[in-house]
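Dear U.,

For the methods section draft, I wanted the exact inputs and outputs in one place so we can describe them consistently. I've listed the two proteins in the order they'll appear in the manuscript figures. Please don't edit the token lines directly; just add comments below if something needs changing.

First protein:
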Amino acid sequence: MVPVELLKKIRRIEIRTSHMVNDVLAGQYHSAFKGRGMEFEEVREYQIGDDVRTIDWNVSARYGKPYVKKFREERELTVMLLVDMSASQGFGTRQQLKRELVAEIGATLAFSAIKNNDKVGLACFTDEVEKVVPAKKGATHVLRVIRELLYYQPAGTSTDLAAAFDHLNKTMKRRSVVFVVSDFQAAGYERPMRVARSRHDLIPIVITDACEQELPDVGLIELRDGETGEMVLVDTSSPRIRAQYAKRTTALAGERNQLFRRMDIDSIQVRTGESFVGPLTRFFRAREARK
């Protein structure tokens, strides 16, 4: 039984994100993802202006005059949301937890997909893939995806991106658009990610919080690692410690972004407490421009 408060939260996210799709992102999703490929339709005689690269030489030789292949675009896409549900998603210092931001982004992408008559599915992971919602169409299905993003309680606490990509590679045979929504606080996932990149249109959405990148000066505090439970005492008033922390987090982010560039992957970077509409819009426009 879903609590009444959660139903209200689902309804609020439904209203907000569906309006966002209709008012702000209308047309941009469609332009960015115009179909997964071209499907052969028929052969017809060559006409002036046709691309010579479409000539079917076997048919042309058979009939003694040039014929070209005609193709039609395959419109329907399968969109998969591969979502990090580890304990680190329960962190947030800007009036919003990372998991709440993940739910809003997931809902927006799901509504965008459904509006364009695409299928959308969900796979929630921690140190393993724990929950899978098969890709389907329809508004009712989107509400189920939102409910799982908000309501699902994972068994694991740590993050294993390699396991998530391995699951994707084994189960998703058809080429799909895969949004990987995570803070990417993990290691050892490069190889399975490369395999996923070769099979799917892979789009990382990196979720961060300001305090994960720069420690505030709040004196002596005890910090707890949400994934391991480890406690550590930190003197945030020390400029040296804050500088070391910032240097390390900057280096880790640089390594992650360099990995994306090596794989020729465009990522979307969003922060808690900030609007994700701008980063999504810029990504869609850049994707459309390249096409």
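Second protein (the one for the lower panel):
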Amino acid sequence: MSKAIVLLSGGLDSTTTLAIAQRDGHEVHAMTFRYGQRHEIEVDAARRVATAAGVRDHVVVDIDLRTFGGSALTSDVPVPKDRHVDANRHGIPVTYVPARNTIFLSYGLAWAEVHGATEIYAGVNAVDYAGYPDCRPEYIAAYQRMADLATRAGIEGRGPQIKTPLITMSKADIIKLGASLGVDYALTTSCYEPTVHGVACGHCDSCHLRLKGFAEAGLKDPIRYREPKQ
């Protein structure tokens, strides 16, 4: 069985991506980041997901991006609430974390080389998060070229391939695919500003996108929200 690194945030997209990696026949090694984000909830969710999926191993890497700030997720900048669901398509949102995917992929690349993993799976999506520059197909392609040049495995022609199976999918299609693979979305979290008990706010961009995705998929979102959603 070939090995794959999965970047696992505990969110809907990365959890679906993990299920895809397992469907594809890989032994999964999951990597989660405690990067100075506003809450520990997503790390807890990642642990739940990894345990439920029975991954080969799961590591939590500590990186303090609050040292730099520059994002509503790593500073005291307010998280936007109740914006139109298409707002992210116009400009780069304040929830963008500078160079986050570059940092995460680099850690994943290092671990992949150590393990001899053939793939690195990342749940990036260019449809719902069009405002994030490091979620675009051209960015992933550029990173792949760099990875092939930057590692011993790449130079020897056996470097890992970066897989982004969700990159052009809508949130509804991601949810439907995950449901078909048996993903338990009750284990996941998406909210940028949940309560200490993990109850989603229902008002941030991520909550809106998640709720819209479940509605369009014709499925009920199993997580809890602070206020009933219509």
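Candidate sentences for the figure legend, describing the second protein: The first strand starts at residue 3 and ends at 7. The mean pLDDT is 93.

Thanks,
Y.
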